[in-house]
TrEMBL record:
Belongs to the glycosyl hydrolase 13 family. Its cofactor is Ca(2+). The keyword Transferase does not apply. Its EC number is 3.2.1.1. Gene3D superfamilies: Glycosidases, Golgi alpha-mannosidase II, Immunoglobulins. One of its GO terms (biological process) is carbohydrate metabolic process. Pfam families: Alpha-amylase (PF00128), Alpha-amylase_C (PF02806), CBM26 (PF16738). It comes from Vibrio casei. The lineage of its organism: Bacteria, Pseudomonadati, Pseudomonadota, Gammaproteobacteria, Vibrionales. This is Alpha-amylase. Residues 37-370 form the Glycosyl hydrolase family 13 catalytic domain. InterPro entries: A-amylase/branching_C, A-amylase_C, Alpha_amylase, CBM26, GH, GH13_cat_dom, Glyco_hydro_b, Ig-like_fold. Residues 380-468 form the Alpha-amylase C-terminal domain. Keywords: Calcium, Carbohydrate metabolism, Glycosidase, Hydrolase, Lyase, Metal-binding, Signal.
Length: 688
């Protein structure tokens, strides 16, 4: 839903070409009909510098937006982090004054680029609790100064974060002051907000602030998901997008330590946010300083960081943010260079102090790749060498080859899925949109979609439909939203249309575990058209099931057995993802197994959720003895807290409590409904 908003932003850009001033070569400009789907964090950049950058680089290269550093008044000091210590909501600070800020917002907008403000609203500066310029006084703050234990939900949200005065975001006065600040930004033309330290604000407080906002700004929340912590990123998706730190960690691990082939299914790894709720990044301003080693950053030797960014921009998951900072020579506190990259200083590749990752050719051009492939938000034609060499397609719109190997070049042909023609290798050359020519090497795709790539160690090649030599023509320029970008439940079974059935029908029987799915009656259930496939949702996860596809009782396939892979494509079983579907799993981390799991959403926010049970009736008749009060502690699984019994249960009496205090009333679960969510029992599969 949020992704949709960003893509529909194109409407707002009509007239963009006409609005291009004399200082931009329209040859470079991205077509106004192409969506903008990736943004950049210009960390600590001055407003005047950002305005110029929008006009000369970001607009033409197709960036959607810039995340800017907190614009409001903060404590004095040269360290970068002073800006995370607000003293007022007036716009004033190191990057410039209010007028310069307004000027930037307008000029960026004219260039097709939005501004997202980093909104520091969880706290004020670490000094006395008196901020007359808002005004806030001691009454407007929470009163917990003990260091935060991240295992304790209450402390995370109510205690001072490293000494920063924690605002009472539960109070209407505070919420209104924050909303007034954000509305002032919106009125200036700011299009979105990063909610800093969102984990430290209860999600309902953010919702309450959001309800006071004018317009419909884009919102993404900084919530660092961490194993074992009670507060999860999932809690915040109702308010807007959320940062997916699991993605940053995965990229850091696989690109640094090897095994990037394992990133193929990254978007479905347990615990990952749904794609349309996730903001993804290779590094952020905190981790490039403090998490070097685990995070891929510009400090990495060689081009790992470069190709990691190329992967991010090619891989169909989340809303990518390119980090763009400055060199700090090991001094983690060091503030920014005293002049901007366009005003006296320069980018690193020109000998300056700003890193300017967003201008690196392969990164800047991959933004265009992502934009031009947005209609086909899918992954196909995957290839890997089993370790550090990968290649994949984005429908018929783009293809990328990434070589992370230190010793071995790639020299081979790939099925690209793309229309025949000559394409600019946008990692190694620039495409000129006006003349449809390429400044570097080209790749030729033959009539069968095959193309030969030579890719050296730790480098990449990429081609896309928007960078075809001579220009693309007709529908190939704008392929229909690929059918296979359709969402599908992980419990569905799909059939390709090569059978030419008029009324595709699926007959099924003998599910394992038995009883998970009731046998169909011949000829079975009719299947619904999904792009090039027909699908039927079995409604439950099965380990295996027998299947016959038929034409409403007429032509039929032989007896098939579906086990693991759910898409019957041209005579072979493939995964739904390999058929290109965007697979939705209600909660990827809640595996359905024969073992009975009882789960609780902990909507009472217990610190130590515990289950006490008695009268357990098992399917086998074996007895399970009653728990001893207050029972056993629950284990966090995704958004739920669960207890797994050693065997299937039929029914059970239980009480959830906070390790003995604040207990629920006596509850009873049945085998059909073992998840207690929003105070009602539901099937485990329905729990989110
Ligand atoms: C500075 C000094 C401190 C001093 C404090 C008050 O460095 O020594 O105590 O001022 O005087 C940034 C800097 C901080 C800086 C702060 C204010 O990083 O060093 O403190 O500005 O000037 C947690 C939060 C997460 C937060 C990270 C850094 O959950 O929200 O810590 N990230 C954002 C920004 C930061 C910013 C702030 C919040 C504050 O991105 O740049 O701080 O506005 C586990 C947990 C995480 C936790 C992480 C680190 O992984 O799961 O939740 O992140 O540990 O503690
Ligand atoms: Ca708080």
């Amino acid at each position: 839903m949020y992704r949709h908003y960003k893509i529909s932003k194109i409407a707002a850009l009509i007239g963009f070409s006409a609005a291009l001033g004399g200082n931009i070569s329209s040859a470079l400009a991205q077509d106004a009909n192409v969506p903008r789907t990736a943004f950049v964090h210009l960390f600590e950049w001055p407003w005047a510098d950002i305005a110029t950058e929008c006009e000369t680089v970001l607009g033409p290269k197709g960036y959607s937006a810039v995340q800017v550093s907190p614009p409001n008044l903060s404590i004095d000091g040269s360290a970068w982090w002073t800006r995370y210590q607000p003293v007022s909501y007036e716009i004033s600070g190191r990057s410039g004054d209010r007028n310069a800020f307004i000027n930037m917002v307008q000029r960026c907008k004219t260039s097709g680029v939005d501004i997202y403000v980093d909104a520091v609203i969880n706290h004020m500066a670490a000094w006395n609790r008196d901020f007359p310029r808002v005004p806030y006084s001691s009454n407007d703050f929470n009163n917990c100064t003990t260091p935060i234990n991240y295992q304790n939900r209450w402390q995370v949200q109510n205690c001072d974060l490293t000494g920063l005065n924690d605002l009472k975001t539960g109070s209407d006065y505070v919420r209104q002051k924050i909303a007034d600040y954000l509305n002032d930004m919106t009125q200036i033309g700011v299009a979105g907000f990063r909610i800093d330290a969102a984990k430290h604000i209860p999600n309902e407080d953010i919702a309450a602030i959001k309800s006071k906002l004018t317009g419909s700004p884009y919102i993404f929340q900084e919530v660092i998901g961490a194993y074992g912590e009670p507060i999860t990123p999932f809690e915040y998706t109702g308010n807007g997008d959320v940062t997916e730190f699991g993605y940053e960690r995965a990229i850091g691990d696989k690109f640094q330590n090897g095994g990037i082939n394992e990133l193929k299914d990254l978007k479905t790894w347990p615990g990952m946010l749904p794609s349309d709720s996730a903001v993804v990044f290779v590094a952020n301003h905190d981790d490039e300083r403090h998490n070097e080693g685990a995070t891929l950053t510009h400090l990495d030797v060689g081009d790992l960081y470069y190709i990691g960014n190329i992967f991010m921009l090619a891989y169909p998951y989340g809303y990518p943010k390119v980090m763009s900072g400055y060199y700090f020579g090991g001094n983690f506190d060091q503030g920014p260079p005293s002049s901007g990259a366009n005003f006296g200083n320069a980018c690193g590749f020109d000998g300056g102090d700003w890193v300017c990752e967003h201008r690196w050719r392969g990164i800047a051009n991959m933004v265009s790749f992502r934009n031009h492939t947005a209609n086909e938000f899918m992954l196909n034609n995957w290839w890997d060498d089993g370790y550090n060499q990968i290649a994949f397609g984005r429908g018929s719109s783009g293809f990328v080859v990434i070589n992370r190997d230190d010793n071995k070049a790639i020299n081979r042909s790939f099925q690209t899925g793309m229309p025949a023609g000559e394409y600019c290798d946008i990692i190694n050359g620039n495409y000129d949109e006006a003349t449809h020519t390429c400044s570097g090497p080209t790749i030729s795709v033959n009539a069968e979609g095959m193309a030969y790539f030579t890719v050296n160690t730790v480098s990449a090649s990429a081609i896309h439909i928007g960078a075809k030599i001579g220009g693309c023509s007709g529908s190939e320029c704008n392929p229909d939203p690929n059918p296979i970008t359709l969402e599908i439940a992980s419990t569905a079974v799909c059939l390709s249309n090569d059978q030419s059935f008029t009324n595709p029908t699926v007959y099924f029987w003998g599910s394992q575990p038995s009883e998970r799915v009731v046998n169909a009656t011949w000829p079975g259930e009719s299947m619904v058209k999904k792009g090039n496939y027909h699908c039927y949702d079995l409604g439950a996860e099965v380990d295996a099931i027998n299947i016959i596809f038929n034409d409403n009782g007429v032509n039929q396939t032989e007896d098939l057995r579906m086990q693991g892979n759910h898409c019957y494509d041209n005579g072979t079983w493939k995964s739904l993802a390999d058929c290109g579907f965007n697979v939705t799993i209600s909660n990827p981390s809640l595996p359905v197994s024969d073992l009975a799991k009882v789960c609780y959403d902990n909507n009472q926010y217990f610190d130590s959720p515990t289950i006490y049970y008695w009268n357990v009736v098992t399917a086998s008749g074996n007895s399970i003895s009653d728990a001893i009060w207050p029972g056993v502690s629950l284990t966090q699984v995704g958004n739920q807290y669960c207890h797994e019994f050693s065997e299937s249960i039929e029914s059970i009496n239980l009480i959830f409590s906070n390790n003995g205090s604040n207990q629920t009333s006596d509850l009873n679960a049945t085998k059909q409904a073992t998840c207690y969510q929003n105070n009602t029992w539901t099937a485990l599969e329905n729990c989110i």
